[in-house]
């Protein structure tokens, strides 16, 4: 089934870690990545680490959208790969989560009926981490209850109440916070996500590993057994977990500049995929904004000392707060209130908000970019390229005119601006751009950057 990807980018274009600045990653993430030996393994263990860590960040949340809805760190991920593709390395992240589970119940077995899944989640206060690397284990369960599991996982992804009503009992999990990592084949993936219209498709982070790795002599024999790195990092996460549990709910936030950048990103760069794949992909694009914020929040937590990242990174924010403080009456300012008077004072102490570090936002944005490409690959596999059949809105000669007006190398912003000047809708021109790439007229050296092929 993986051959359905033959018109998407190659695996080298889907790679994630090689596009990241390693120096900007938290030390714990760098250590986990050191366990991998191939680009595919590095991508797998990155996503597995983020998924497992997302279950170990209690009480930290951000608000999103006009209603100010609360979102927690929990990620739900599926690594879609063939046998012998290196996905087994994801189990290293499970060892990291086991450290927390030994002190605080966290793990939920993948080999669970829907009733057992509900019961475990209820008993753990709506919090849990499901990690299953053997696709055959979950296939039998989902064969009879995939649709019901799909609904429960979809609601958990949005922290929406999950209720059940049986003859003997009724219950409701009001604020489910479930993290999950599954690995399996396309058939197992499609059992959970039967169509692109299914609401869970846009909520499930999907990583597609197309190729298989050559035989690795490391698996012939080894000394010392299981690496100690995951448990060492697990101990660090345990300290963060306990600190957050003791502190109660705490808000995390992007800075104003980061929020503006994320909005611009959705409007321009992501338009490429909407134009290429159609409006059914729109929800995946919009929801990726939430996933990017979740990833950035996890990176903040994985640095361990939250106070180091709780200082606002927006100088304007600090100046405004200082001016506000200077305008306060002496009888208020002198009562020991936690108002910031300089950049040395944590802004978090003013309004209990932890701000995202710029390096964590940049890392999360890049990961989100690549995860959208992976989701697009999964989209094509499920949809069978049905979205390619789209009526032409403008005649072919107008496409040629537009292409000739563009320089040899250009950004998506220039493409969209030039098209709009000619009255061509953004969705149409981005679809044309995808067709030019398919036909070998253009190539995409990097996300949002295009080059004509002579």
Short précis:
The protein is an alpha/beta fold and 454 residues long.
Description:
The chain has 454 residues and is of the alpha/beta class. Among the domains are: 2-246, Rossmann fold (3-Layer(aba) Sandwich); 390-452, Orthogonal Bundle (Arc Repressor Mutant, subunit A). The chain is 48% helix and 14% strand. The protein has 18 helices and 14 strands. The strands form 4 sheets. It has a 5-stranded parallel sheet, sandwiched between helices. The protein is globular, with a radius of gyration of 23 Å. The relative contact order is 0.14.
List the helices and strands and how they pair.
Elements: H1 11-14, H2 27-33, H3 39-54, E1 60-64, E2 69-72, E3 76-81, H4 91-101, E4 107-108, H5 114-123, E5 127-132, H6 135-157, E6 162-165, E7 170-173, E8 177-184, H7 186-192, E9 205-209, H8 229-247, E10 250-253, H9 256-267, H10 271-277, H11 282-302, H12 315-326, H13 330-333, H14 348-351, E11 353-355, H15 358-383, H16 396-405, E12 409-411, H17 412-421, H18 426-438, E13 442-446, E14 449-452
Parallel strand pairs: 1-10, 3-8, 3-9, 4-5, 5-8, 10-11
Antiparallel strand pairs: 1-2, 6-7, 12-14, 13-14
Helix pairs in contact: 3-4, 4-8, 10-18, 11-15
Features:
single chain; about 450 residues; alpha/beta; Rossmann fold; Arc Repressor Mutant, subunit A; 5-stranded parallel sheet; 4-stranded mixed sheet; 18 helices; about 15% strand; globular; disordered N terminus
């Amino acid at each position: 089934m993986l051959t359905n990807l033959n018109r998407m980018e190659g695996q080298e274009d889907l790679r994630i870690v090689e596009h990241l600045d390693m120096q900007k990653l938290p030390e714990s993430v760098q250590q986990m990545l050191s366990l991998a030996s191939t680009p595919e393994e590095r991508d797998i263990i990155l996503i597995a680490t983020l998924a497992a860590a997302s279950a170990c960040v209690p009480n930290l949340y951000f608000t999103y959208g006009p209603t100010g809805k609360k979102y927690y760190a929990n990620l739900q991920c599926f690594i879609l790969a063939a046998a012998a593709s290196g996905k087994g390395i994801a189990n290293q992240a499970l060892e990291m989560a086991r450290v927390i589970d030994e002190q605080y119940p966290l793990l939920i077995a993948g080999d669970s009926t829907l009733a057992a899944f509900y019961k475990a989640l209820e008993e753990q206060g709506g919090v849990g981490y499901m990690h299953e690397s053997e696709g055959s284990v979950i296939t039998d369960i989902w064969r009879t209850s995939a649709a019901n599991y799909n609904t429960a996982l979809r609601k958990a992804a949005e922290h929406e109440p999950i209720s059940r009503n049986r003859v003997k009992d009724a219950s409701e999990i009001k604020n489910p916070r479930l993290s999950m990592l599954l690995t399996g084949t396309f058939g197992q993936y499609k059992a959970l996500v039967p169509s692109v219209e299914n609401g869970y498709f846009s909520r499930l982070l999907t990583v597609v590993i197309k190729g298989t790795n050559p035989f690795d002599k490391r698996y012939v024999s080894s000394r010392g057994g299981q690496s100690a790195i995951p448990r060492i990092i697990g101990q660090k996460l345990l300290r963060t977990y306990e600190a957050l549990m003791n502190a109660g709910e705490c808000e995390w936030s992007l800075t104003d500049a980061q929020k503006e950048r994320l909005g611009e990103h959705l409007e321009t760069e992501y338009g490429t995929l909407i134009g290429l794949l159609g409006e059914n992909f729109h929800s995946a694009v919009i929801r990726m904004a939430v996933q990017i914020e979740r990833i950035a929040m996890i990176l903040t937590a994985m640095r361990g000392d939250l106070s180091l990242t709780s200082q606002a990174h927006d100088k304007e924010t600090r100046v405004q707060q200082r001016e506000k403080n200077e305008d306060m009456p002496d009888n208020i300012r002198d009562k020991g209130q936690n108002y910031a008077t300089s950049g040395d004072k944590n802004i978090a102490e003013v309004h209990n908000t932890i701000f995202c570090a710029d390096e964590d936002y940049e890392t999360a944005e890049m990961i989100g970019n690549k995860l959208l490409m992976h989701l697009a690959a999964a989209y094509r596999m499920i949809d069978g390229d049905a979205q390619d059949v789209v009526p032409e809105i403008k005649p072919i000669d107008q496409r040629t005119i537009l292409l000739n007006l563009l320089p040899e190398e250009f950004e998506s912003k220039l493409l969209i601006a030039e098209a709009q000047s000619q009255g061509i809708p953004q969705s149409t021109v981005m679809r044309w751009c995808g067709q030019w790439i398919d036909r070998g007229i253009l190539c995409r050296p990097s996300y949002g950057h295009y080059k004509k092929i002579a």
